[in-house]
Amino acid sequence: MDQQFDNLYLDRKPSRTTSVNGKEYLFFSGYNYLGVNADAEFIELILEGTDRYGWLYPSSRISNTRLAVYEECEAILSELTGSEDTILLPSGFIAGRVATSYHQNFVHNAPDSHPAILQHKPAVADFEDWGNWITEQSRSDTPLTIASDSVNPLTSTINNFSFLNDASSKIVTVIDDSHGIGLIGENGSGASGLVPQSNNVEYLFSYSLSKAYGISGGAISASKNWVAKFKHTPEYSGVTPSSPAQIFAFNKGQHIYHRQRHKLLSNISYFENCIKAMPGIQHSAGLPSFILPTDINENIFFESGILISSFAYPDPKGKTLKRIVLSALHTPADLDFLASVLQKAY
After folding, report:
1. What is the pLDDT of residues 47-80, one digit of tens each?
2. 143, exposed or middle or buried, with CB in 10 Å at 0-12, 13-18, 19+?
3. What whole-number distance in Å separates Cα of residue 260 and Cα of residue 250?
4. CA-CA distances (angstroms) from residue 302 to 13, 199, 311, 319, 341?
């Protein structure tokens, strides 16, 4: 990577635009999918929540003095995901670790599993092959525990779990829905509305609240039995919970998320049309990430006043991943300009 594109320090918060060394750039990076950090109505809710509850609640969730906003949030997430119960945790990463580390069975990880849910090296390298392998393993009648992301942000694909229809034994399925919740599925319900329903399969959905919802924290939506177990972990009882002001804004701002999601989906559809003649871009319909060819020169974007995502992930020593990430804040004019610069880069 050219040095000028490496380690860029932003002067202010990224929204539709940001600035580096005083120069303004269109921002097509990060995971601010719904753009609520720049939505005036949502910001007002944050301020209202701060005035009412403070920006921090330095206490345990199991204290005798509690705030109802957390349980209200959990109820909203349970309804959204169609789950019996939900537990809020300090981050999506912690949610993933709790969801996968509490199982006595060996966790069979899918290829490209996020480190939050990664317990063991995947048995195979291709997701479809892994699904077939899991189907074969289930025929032994031994209960299985598996873990996978719902969306692979490295390839911009939505993983297909239809192989679970063929499960012969009981399968506990942990799905990291950090890049799906709030975006995919009906009303942003995430993977919960897309996965097959079977008496043999029990789902635990872990996810970050930052990617789409723009607030800090994570959660696990699952059965009441699983959530009751998770509430006995130190990751729940021994930590400071998420900002109550942000949780308040989440609870009261569901209509804002609905509005912003429709804006984002419109932007995705618009940009898909802009690039339909450009080869080599990896993208799945409905996702805001567009994976660029590895040999494309990202400095053309930088020189044109555009910031894209360009760094090695999840392995800092691995191959640079070049992505364009849309948000609900972008305008058609922004997308037209982005497409023109992308054409130049080709």
Report:
1. 999 999 999 998 888 888 899 999 999 999 999 9
2. middle
3. 13
4. 18, 51, 14, 20, 10
